[in-house]
Fold this protein.
Amino acid sequence: MKYHSAIIGAGSAGLTVAIGLAGLGKQVVVIEKNHVGGDCTNVGCIPSKLLIHLANDAKDLTTSEIFARVRAKRDELRDEEDHWLKSQENIKFIKGEAKFIANDSLNVITETETITIKAENIIIASGSSPIIIPIKGLPIERTLTNENLFDLENLPKHIAIVGAGVIGCEMAFAFNKLGSEVSLIDLAPRILAPLEPEVAELILNRLESLGVKVYTAAKGKFYDQSSNNLVLDSNGNDITLEKVDKVLLAIGRRPNLDLDLEKAGIEYDRRGIPTNKVHETNMENIYAIGDVDYEPSSAFTHSANAQGRRLAQKLAFPYLPIGREPTYPSAVFTSPEVAQVGLTLAKLKQKYHEKLIKTERFELAKTDRAFTQDLKEGFILIHALRLTGRIVSATIVAPNASEMIPILSYAVNNKVSMYKLSDLVFPYPSLSEGMKKAADSFKFATLANLKNELGVYLRYRLAQAKNEELSG
Amino acid sequence: MKYHSAIIGAGSAGLTVAIGLAGLGKQVVVIEKNHVGGDCTNVGCIPSKLLIHLANDAKDLTTSEIFARVRAKRDELRDEEDHWLKSQENIKFIKGEAKFIANDSLNVITETETITIKAENIIIASGSSPIIIPIKGLPIERTLTNENLFDLENLPKHIAIVGAGVIGCEMAFAFNKLGSEVSLIDLAPRILAPLEPEVAELILNRLESLGVKVYTAAKGKFYDQSSNNLVLDSNGNDITLEKVDKVLLAIGRRPNLDLDLEKAGIEYDRRGIPTNKVHETNMENIYAIGDVDYEPSSAFTHSANAQGRRLAQKLAFPYLPIGREPTYPSAVFTSPEVAQVGLTLAKLKQKYHEKLIKTERFELAKTDRAFTQDLKEGFILIHALRLTGRIVSATIVAPNASEMIPILSYAVNNKVSMYKLSDLVFPYPSLSEGMKKAADSFKFATLANLKNELGVYLRYRLAQAKNEELSG
């Protein structure tokens, strides 16, 4: 029997395709090496957000009880997903490791046997794993990654987190709240490198005001097992962190490519598998979505999910057109939260002449909602194209930024302008009103200076159009 | 000297017009009987949201300290607004009571004199006051309205709130949290009459689970000063509430019309002053905005504000077109919050044939964010037109509903469809994802049943178009 589709990986990306295709009557096989639900359910978003929530709200639980609760809730969800998946018609589930043997077939190595599978389409949704750069002297039992972090039974007294990206910063807040001493270390000169510098500045201040020690432009040099000291190298100088009982490595992720891709002729490099606009690899009928895809924009649960939906549609209805891939929002569950959609200003400047970009920043503290909530920090940052006011990217730093970003995500994806945003009425009092104030500021500044704005726009926009013509 | 505009009332509506016009160089006079900032700053949104916030978060303060803090913060904001207004160029501020003497002139009665003012335009933004229906035997010192509520020095042991509308419900949660025994009474058969019945049901359950006693289809009959008992009349039966020390009347608002409107020939009735699409009364160059306007949609700070902006534009740039008045969202700061935009289903059915409306309700508990936050209740309710999927109204019940509604407010005001909403990617995990799930449900149900949906749409939509033609 030849399946309609074989899906490698039962995480957010793979499950979405599987469910979509099975629902349309296609026979699919899903192969998963570890647990159903993938990283998100098992060692990612779900346990980390449970931990963050309980760290903040479960004042009646001990830290050990909190860790146990995180695992219990996580397992509950996992079992539910597992049970649900295995009861689906049209989905065959195999727990095992997939290896390509040709461009339409896989071997699946299970605990007891090797099964050969043939499918018209193969979807690689094998996800990613934490990058591990060993620190000299650091024993394995003191090393954490997201994969064993949630197995902790007791709170570390002092946790060093290597990598001040999204996971590193989220966990720095959570462990600080739980009561650990937290040291946060990054090789880069600033934390949260993929986000706007204004975000990094605010989150850094927040972390430091909570007592987290942050070391940028630094890396782990060695760990002394007799004293439990972790020594960092910061521009050639040693910094000693005393009595570190656990080191969490949150340096980054690498795609899971150990699938004998060569046997199917699939091109890839260490960043992942390149794909075209419909998620197809260089080989016809072989697709890659989610973390294993080359594009960093795919590395969220919601984007993996969105790609899964797109691909299910493409495979089930090959003659229906499939739109441009959207610009995905992202959210960071620090305190306050950060949400972003579109490129940072630095990257926007590679796309548009910098004179074409007009940035509005509005401090949330100036809203009446912040006044009534005693909220002193946070902002809304919007980058728009000059004159036309088209919103091209936005960042929110606020207690519920993840719930506030959808309107700006809609704006970026649907070319909504600052004028249109300025016309929208927001409920009073709300922090979201800050968006309107940012849009008002753009509108009034532009209208007051229309002739000049028009001149600048024509000069740089036309120049750019010409460049695009020459280069394309 | 004849002013460009005379504005009666320095609340949200009046101040917005004043600031807008003054900024454009027009000479305006603002007349205010009480405090700058109007009800919102002084006895409305600001102190009530301060109280709600402090009731929930200021665990280190006594209740008397909380009331004092509310007043101090409120006064801080009032003083700021007051100082700011009085320092504005082009704005003359007069504290006093305005009375029309002709259709272009007012007398302003101040503490020391009566000033006659002439203006090309007169804007009535005099706001509203609480409706007071006296309860037999209830002494004045035990009677509260929003106007003296925030003057409380000590927490009532038992507060009876008459009127289970927005203010009544918000204050029921706040005083319950502060530690009062709370009884909530309404004449109507359900609480929160202007909102969807599903909202009333959830909020009622929440109130009762917190220990608030709710009496619907009931009214205050008499108060016995010797025992401090409040006796209610419920369908002819007496219900005795024991030892009630304060009674908050939150029955509704009446427009402030004591302005000798007849002398200018302005039409009005007890519901307010009717206006046309550009907020003009029956008299040319006399406008009415905010709570004093006839339309209940004007009775929010944000809608008063929006009307102020529209009117400032109309008066400053009379030849520019002014768009249709938007559909305003509303927010209720109960726990959880409620936010709504557009008509309730009951009212939608007066506008569209009920077969044309398709309702999607998504329980937030089914989102992964709710799972990680241990959130058990709340929902997203969207009414859309069948087939086309045009979103016509929506309600959210969630901890931060007021920050989540903007995307749905945009949708209702810009004819965004469920298909479009289904295409939007939301950050994971978020409660807002529930909107996408609601939209997905609509989309899949419609696509699976397209022929039937098309038939129903054509049948009822065409019938309606025909009716509209006949009637209009």
